[in-house]
């Protein structure tokens, strides 16, 4: 990438600033030396995607990722002149007069994957085989985007490469279901399952797909979003936590760094809740509700893992097609989860 196209000065001002650039409808504007000023949103997004970073510079009010030592020292200093609110549920110290960190949320928003089409032929009669095959094809396209999204998440590339692979291979289903629940809530008011613009499941398609009960559980997720009036900032933080929600039983190569990284994202969710809450006394309840929702999703995801594996085993007799990448991850990784070789990281005791 040419530095003249992305521009260090533009990146510094955009990343440090509190501008909320409007995204283009398709979020795929051409950014080159001539047209670099046409869309600041896509320009900033591609800066992050190209790996540009503000490095170790200390930014005013924008420190979303600190080491444990930095956090401890900063908290000790602030205790001298500022009262702290201690959140009993996870022991996160937080300033009473906290200002939400625009850089962190801007990064999460800028790297959100674009909506993917399933390529489903809606002019043909629905059959269980056609619906399930289309879901598999859509799943592979979305999986590619999940990988690209994870690779540009703040802090993710600092994980051991084996840990990166494990997290994606174990959590892809949870991340994709959560994103689908969000689309269903925002686009069709949780009345249907919005897998893709060209693949929306109504009651009839749920029945036809042979996974009606699972569809109902996924629809319940989007209805929970509606009941909670989940905000986009909450959604963005929660989706990252789902990426970090299941790990090998024996742990990761660099478990300490992973634990710190996950805690940082938990803190960001806590700060988002604090920033947008009108009544501070309701913040602990909100945090409990959102983390309880994340825990409950693990039950549905495990059922989906079992359904996907059973479907893969019977795919030939059922005339259901699996693309190569989906076939590989379902045949090689899903059995490990079902066999108990991976464990979910829950916020609450079951």
UniProtKB/TrEMBL annotation:
It comes from the Eukaryota. Residues 8-59 form the Nuclear receptor domain. Keywords: DNA-binding, Lipid-binding, Metal-binding, Nucleus, Receptor, Steroid-binding, Transcription, Transcription regulation, Zinc, Zinc-finger. It holds the Pfam family zf-C4. Transmembrane segments: none annotated. It comes from Leucoraja erinaceus (Little skate). The keyword RNA-binding does not apply. Residues 99-330 form the NR LBD domain. SUPFAM superfamilies: Glucocorticoid receptor-like (DNA-binding domain), Nuclear receptor ligand-binding domain. The keyword DNA-binding applies. GO terms for molecular function: DNA-binding transcription factor activity; sequence-specific DNA binding; steroid binding; zinc ion binding. This is Androgen receptor.
